[in-house]
Amino acid sequence: MTRVLIIEDKQSMADMLAKTLEAEGFSVLSSLTIKDGLDLLYRENIKAVITDLKLPDGDGLKIVKTVREGFPFIPVIVMTAFGSIETAVKAIKEGAYDFISKPFDPDHLIYILKRALEDLTLQKENLVLKHEFSKFLKMPEIIGVSSQWNSVMEKIRKVAPLKTTVLVLGESGTGKEIIARAIHHLGPRAKESFIAVNCAAIPKDLIENEIFGHEKGAFTGAAELKPGRFELADKGTIFLDEIGDMEASLQSKLLRVLQENELERVGGTKTVHVDLRVIAASNKNLESEVSAGRFREDLFYRLNVFPIIIPPLRERREDIIPLARHFLGLFSAEMNKQAPSLSADSEAMLLANEWKGNSRELKNIIERAVILCEGPVLQPEHFNFMKCFLADQIGTDVPLSEVAQSAARTAEILRIETVLTQTGGNKSRAADILRVSYKTLLTKIKEYGIKNR
Ligand SMILES: Nc1ncnc2c1ncn2[C@@H]1O[C@H](COP(=O)(O)OP(=O)(O)OP(=O)(O)O)[C@@H](O)[C@H]1O
Ligand SMILES: [Mg+2]
């Protein structure tokens, strides 16, 4: 329910306002003073404020100012005495959304309130979109020091200046999209648009319309001509993400666009010419998709002109810490925090993890850790992947009576791996740190099948 804050010192007036709003389905919080009103504003999830200007502890303009500065997406509607237009103008100059004069018409108030809520939501959405857009305009910051990553970057630098079609392959979260953006930005089309289509995320019955657009009157509700994403990408780059999930009928339409550089909108016969650079990505093995008959072979060869394979994070462990530091900086800046450093133990823990979700998983874990960490150093307890790890290791078919034993075993494995990473694989130093004999450590390593890194 949308929560509205009323700040009004006359109880009868406040009650009347509350009743009017509640009858329209709003939830209402009331306060009689500026101080209590601001308290509520900071504590509660308020979506709009209606305030009187003459309040026992000061001028209601203070509320207008505070909200404008601290909560730019909460509209404030002020109530003024009948005829005092000057005050109303002053309040609007200070940033009030609108005013109503007392005595007011309830319908008018509701109308203004609803419009205010709509306007401000829209403003917010536009900003978000702009932000999304600016993300497209900027060359992404790409981190990596491993030799595997360097050879990926070298391929990018070679192919970016050309119009060659690129196929980016890699497990989920390895950085396929960031690589696609980099290729676009390092090439001659950097100033043109980069349009992404996620073939897996757009519902099947909408995707054709999304990609190819439609003519006016193509179907009921198609009141206007709508250009598709291929047209929007004209002269720029189209990024076909999760191409392995594209359904067969669209695959053949896509093939035509790639071969002829032309397309027809849904419901149309007019041919539209497009000049596109194509980058496709998939986390599936497209060759086996072809063998299984799910992906067109001719389309595969069209796309597989210049493949770039991104190795999973666990195969390029040197990138883990630099990436972690990069994400730390990103999230700390976003949360207005001084970026914490990584303790030796947390580095060891990050290095020992499997990272099945690759860089994306690392990014998520760092985000959570930055939220949890209050001091200057990130410690292992700030990473809560232990829980997932334990759940993974214990398995789903372990009876309760054996859980403790199974968890202890997992904890031992984790601890031994962490210390081995810390000592660079030196077992006798690891045994010292773990305070067990060298022989015991060797037995455990063998028993648990711990690999030497
Ligand atoms: N080398 C890198 N440097 C900086 N950030 C990176 C790097 N690799 C990945 N990231 C970040 O990690 C996140 C996941 O990367 P991205 O979305 O490119 O992966 P993906 O392979 O497309 O994943 P999915 O298969 O889940 O769509 C993104 O937020 C991206 O910015
Ligand atoms: Mg992706």
Describe this structure in words.
By secondary structure, the chain is an alpha/beta fold. The protein folds into 4 domains: 3-129, Rossmann fold (3-Layer(aba) Sandwich), CATH 3.40.50; 147-311, Rossmann fold (3-Layer(aba) Sandwich); 315-383, Helicase, Ruva Protein, domain 3; 389-448. 51% of the residues lie in helices and 15% in strands. It contains 19 helices and 18 strands. It has helices at residues 11-23, 34-43, 61-70, 85-94, 106-137, 147-159, 176-186, 204-212, 229-232, 248-260, 286-291, 297-303, 320-334, 344-352, 358-372, 385-394, 400-422, 427-434, 438-448, and strands at 3-7, 27-31, 48-52, 54-55, 58-59, 76-81, 98-102, 166-170, 194-198, 213-214, 226-227, 237-241, 262-264, 271-273, 277-282, 306-310, 341-342, 377-378. The strands form 6 sheets. The protein has a 5-stranded parallel β-sheet with strand order 2-1-3-6-7, sandwiched between helices. Helix 14 (344-352) crosses helix 17 (400-422), helix 17 packs across helix 18 (427-434) and helix 18 (427-434) packs across helix 19. The two termini are 54 Å apart. The structure holds adenosine-5'-triphosphate (ATP) and magnesium ion. Magnesium ion binds at residues 176-177, 241.
Keywords:
binds adenosine-5'-triphosphate; single chain; Rossmann fold; five-stranded parallel beta sheet; 19 helices; alpha/beta; Helicase, Ruva Protein, domain 3; binds magnesium ion; 453 residues; flat; 4 domains
CATH superfamily (homologous) name of the largest domain:
P-loop containing nucleotide triphosphate hydrolases
Q: Report the CATH topology name of the largest domain.
A: Rossmann fold
What compounds sit in this structure? adenosine-5'-triphosphate, magnesium ion
How many structural domains are formed by the residues?
4
| Overall radius of gyration | 30 Å
User: Class of the largest domain in CATH?
Assistant: Alpha Beta
Percent strand: 15-25%
CATH architecture of the largest domain: 3-Layer(aba) Sandwich
Number of helices: 19
Mean pLDDT: 88
**Cα-to-Cα separation, first versus last residue:** 54 Å
